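Hi R.,

As promised on Friday, here is the backbone we talked about, encoded as C-alpha cells. Could you run it through your design pipeline when you get a chance and send me back a sequence?
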C-alpha cells in the first residue's frame, strides 16, 4: 500500500472518473435496518448527495462513500448509523475547504479528526439519554480524489479492493478477536464465519469505548480498480470468491449495478442481518 505525502498528489493526475452503485436491505429476519450508507460529491462550493447509481468525473470534486452499521438497544442502533453518516456530511465540506486552502494536515490527520468527532458525538448522546446508552456504530469510509483513495475504518464493516489484473483483497482489518485470528492465519474464512465470537467488536465508534484507533490508509488509483464497502450482512451471505465474481461481472456495470446484485444474493443465501453494499469502479479518462 502506498502512502502519499502531505503535498497535493492530484495536481498532475489524469482526469479519470468513477462509476458507483449502492443499496441496503433490512434482511429477512430483523425488524429494522441499522445499516446506513452515504454517497457524496464535494467541491469548494457545496456538498451534493448522490443517487444509488451514477457515473462522474473526478475533475474538480472529491467523492466520499461510506457504510455504517449501528448497534444498541431498541432503535438506537439505527439512530447511531444515521448520526454517523450525517456527521460526515456536516464535517467533510469544512475539511475539504481547509485542504484546498492548504490549511489542513495530511489525509491521516483529516480522517483521524473526522472519526474522533463522530466518536465523541456518539459518546455524548449515549451518556445523555438513557435510551441511547451503549449506542455505537462501525464506519468504513472511502474518499476518492483524482489520484488517490484515502480510507478510514473502525469495526467489522469492510472495504475490499479488486484491481483490474489481480484478485480480491480485504484492505481493512475487522476489529474483532476473530478478525485477528484470521489475519494471523489461525483460522480460515469458513471457520471465521461460524466462530461463536465473530460479532464481538473490539472497537466501535461510541459504544462506551473511550479510545478508538481507526485504521487509516491510502491507495493510488488505476483505471479498472473496483472497491466494495459493505456491512457484515454481505459476508454472512457470500463467500469472498462469490463477491469477486459479482463485482468483476460485466453486467455489474449496467442496470442497478454490482451493489444490488451483491445484496440480493446475500439476502437470498442468508438474510439474517441487515445487508449493505457500495461498489465504486475507477473509469479511465475520457478520450
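Update: got your reply. Pasting your designed sequence below so it's all in one thread:
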Amino acid at each position: 500500500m502506498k502512502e502519499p505525502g502531505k503535498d497535493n498528489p492530484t495536481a498532475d493526475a489524469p482526469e479519470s472518473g468513477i462509476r458507483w452503485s449502492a443499496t441496503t436491505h433490512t434482511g429477512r429476519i430483523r425488524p429494522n435496518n441499522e445499516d446506513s450508507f452515504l454517497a457524496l460529491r464535494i467541491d469548494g462550493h457545496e456538498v451534493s448527495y448522490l443517487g444509488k447509481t451514477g457515473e462522474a468525473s473526478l475533475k474538480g470534486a472529491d467523492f466520499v462513500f461510506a457504510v455504517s452499521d449501528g448497534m444498541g438497544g431498541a432503535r438506537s442502533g439505527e439512530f447511531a448509523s444515521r448520526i454517523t453518516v450525517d456527521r460526515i456530511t456536516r464535517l467533510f465540506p469544512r475539511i475539504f475547504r481547509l485542504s484546498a486552502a492548504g490549511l489542513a494536515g495530511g489525509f491521516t490527520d483529516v480522517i483521524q479528526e473526522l472519526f474522533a468527532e463522530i466518536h465523541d458525538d456518539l459518546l455524548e448522546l449515549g451518556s445523555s439519554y438513557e435510551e441511547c446508552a451503549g449506542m455505537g456504530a462501525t464506519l468504513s469510509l472511502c474518499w476518492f480524489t483524482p489520484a488517490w483513495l484515502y480510507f478510514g475504518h473502525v469495526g467489522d464493516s469492510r472495504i475490499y479492493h479488486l484491481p483490474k489484473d489481480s484478485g480480491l483483497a480485504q484492505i481493512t482489518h475487522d476489529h474483532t478477536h476473530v478478525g485477528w485470528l484470521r489475519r494471523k492465519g489461525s483460522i480460515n474464512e469458513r471457520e471465521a464465519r461460524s466462530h461463536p465470537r465473530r460479532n464481538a467488536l473490539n472497537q466501535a465508534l461510541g459504544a462506551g469505548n473511550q479510545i478508538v484507533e481507526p485504521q487509516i490508509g491510502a491507495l493510488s488509483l488505476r483505471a479498472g480498480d473496483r472497491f466494495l464497502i459493505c456491512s457484515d450482512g454481505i459476508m454472512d451471505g457470500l463467500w469472498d470468491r462469490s463477491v469477486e465474481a459479482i463485482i468483476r461481472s460485466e453486467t455489474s456495470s449496467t442496470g442497478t449495478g454490482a451493489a444490488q446484485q451483491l445484496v440480493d444474493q446475500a439476502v437470498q443465501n442468508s438474510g439474517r442481518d441487515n445487508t449493505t453494499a457500495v461498489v465504486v469502479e475507477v473509469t479511465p479518462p475520457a478520450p
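One thing I noticed while checking it: The first helix runs from residue 76 to 100.

Thanks again,
M.
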